[in-house]
Design goal:
Shape: globular
CATH class of the largest domain: Alpha Beta
Number of helices: 16
CATH superfamily of the largest domain: Aldehyde Dehydrogenase, Chain A, domain 1
CATH architecture of the largest domain: 3-Layer(aba) Sandwich
Number of strands: 22
Number of domains: 2
Strand content: 15-25%
Helix content: 40-55%
């Protein structure tokens, strides 16, 4: 361990050495080499982050909203100044290629640009003379200390885009639990936020085990929790934290489907589908692991998609030529390979096999090549459960009605897309799909940050999604104030009545 960089955790803008003897290895997925070690912070260290956030909350929430957003303006500029540095760091520790890493970092910039609208979006509303001589106003106020639990696949966008900007712009403080496998991107972003003028305690960062996170679900000083990760963990967090009276948003697994109809231009559509399928090595909740294809064009489409997939350049994440990088670690590589074996055992047709992928000179990296299964039918688990790797399933259907029925039968409903030139089918699809984010001739229907990331069914647990107006509502609470002012005449009449009453009482006594 002496030769490996031991990372720190941050409380009150101070980077501290953990007293733990347990560390999580931080790997370079492209080479299979360890590059750092993240501390499994002790319970007292995690609680110190919560206490710092609690102590900072009164001062930060009372800071005028325009001053809070100025911090985000300065942070945005620093992120842009260090854009390439952050992108290379992210690609190195996570494995997504440089273009995808740049997109990850850009989402932090985009979220800051949305969050600085807080002075407008936090405005409430009012009515004079709501009832006789009474006025009623509604205000939006901050809530308190939040906990953000981030996954490994978007180490910039999720903690510093989805969670942080709206949370602190609204006047809250936050403890970020970043993924121990990819902590350095978040740590560097926090350094830039501190450089931008972050007050002590407003944002704190830890790496820890699931047990420390479980202890926080009922922590009396945490008011709300934002989580992104697996459905099984999300259900536990949602049920546990909600039972403790906290507001919760849990974004969980997905098995997004696209429906390709026979009137769609196949080459054009395949170009938009290919990145959706294999971008980020399939390790994103808006990946497109299933394409439902109308039978009349299925053979041709599969050959087009296979040809495009075979031409993808597989290599180290930080090589500018790379189109498909590695998966996160050896354990996840094994999981994806096991899923491919299972697909073969279930009887699906393996059109393209990525199990033996090993770029020359990087044989120890965690690479899985693009993989395509055809003739995936109901009952095959590879077509229904999240694999989280560069594996695509083709499901064949007769027509639109069968296609949308197949898609809606899946328990997840994060996103869905249709490829067609038929306006009627496009409209019907948008109206009837269970997917919360819908694409019409769009492979990755992720909305910009001023709209919510709005998954459905077992892809989301909670009432308010991240980003957009949903996000700001999640990080604020409402207060209604009813006011009545007494006019001088009313005041005089009331005083006269009181004097008369007092005189009567005195005489009776």
């Amino acid at each position: 361990m002496s030769e490996i960089k031991k990372l720190l955790y941050c409380v009150d803008n101070e980077w501290r050495q953990s007293a733990t003897d347990k560390y999580t290895p931080v790997m370079n997925p492209s080479t299979g080499e360890q590059i750092a070690a993240a501390p499994v912070c002790l319970p007292a260290e995690v609680d110190s982050a919560v206490q710092a956030a609690k102590a900072a909350y009164p001062g930060w929430s009372n800071t005028p909203v325009g001053m809070r957003t100025q911090l985000l303006f300065r942070f945005r500029e620093l992120v842009n100044q260090h854009f390439e540095e952050l992108s290379v760091l992210l690609a190195t520790e996570m494995g997504k290629n440089l273009d995808e890493s740049r997109g990850d970092v850009h989402k932090v910039v985009e979220a800051c640009e949305v969050a600085v609208s807080a002075p407008m979006e936090m405005q409430g509303y009012a009515m004079m003379e709501a009832t006789r001589s009474h006025d009623i106003c509604l205000y939006r106020e901050s809530v308190g200390v939040f906990l953000g639990i981030a996954p490994y696949n978007f180490p910039a966008m999720i903690p510093f885009g989805w969670f942080l900007p709206l949370c602190i712009a609204a006047g809250n403080t936050i403890v970020l639990k970043v993924a121990s496998m990819v902590p350095q991107t978040g740590m560097r972003l926090l350094e830039l936020l501190i450089e931008a003028g972050l007050p002590k305690g407003v944002v704190n960062l830890v790496t820890c085990s699931r047990q420390e996170v479980a202890n926080l679900l009922s922590h009396p000083d945490i008011q709300g929790i934002s989580f992104v990760g697996s459905t099984s963990t999300g259900v536990k967090i949602y049920s546990g934290a909600a039972a403790a009276g906290k507001r919760v948003q849990c974004l969980t697994e997905a098995k997004n489907h696209a429906l390709l109809l026979e009137d769609a231009p196949l080459e054009w559509s395949a170009q938009r589908i290919i990145n959706s399928c294999f971008g980020c090595a399939g390790q994103r909740c808006m990946a497109l692991p299933v394409v439902v294809v109308q039978e009349s064009v299925a053979d041709r489409f599969v050959q087009i998609l296979k040809g495009m997939a075979e031409r993808l350049t597989v290599g180290t994440a930080y090589d500018p030529q790379t189109q498909l990088g590695p998966v996160i670690n050896a354990a996840h590589k094994k999981s994806v390979l096991d899923w491919i074996d299972k697909g073969v055992a279930e009887g699906a047709s393996l059109v393209l096999d990525g199990r033996q992928c090993a770029p020359k000179g990087f044989e120890n990296g965690y690479f899985v090549g693009p993989t395509i299964f055809d003739h995936v039918i109901s009952g095959m688990t590879i077509g229904d459960q999240e694999i989280f790797g560069p594996v695509v399933c083709i499901k064949r259907v007769k027509d639109f009605e069968e296609g949308i029925a197949v898609m809606n039968a899946n328990p997840f409903a994060n996103g869905s897309s249709i490829f067609t030139q038929n306006g009627h089918y496009a409209r019907e699809f948008a109206r009837r799909t269970d997917g919360g984010m819908v694409g019409v001739n769009v492979g990755i229907p992720v909305p910009l940050a001023f709209f919510p990331f709005s998954g459905n069914k077992r892809s989301f647990f909670g009432d308010l999604h991240v980003l957009g107006r949903d996000g700001l509502r999640f990080y604020t609470r409402t207060k209604t104030v009813t006011t009545k002012w007494v006019s001088p005449k009313e005041s005089g009449d009331a005083q006269a009545r009181v004097s008369t009453w007092e005189g009567t009482i005195n005489r009776e006594l």
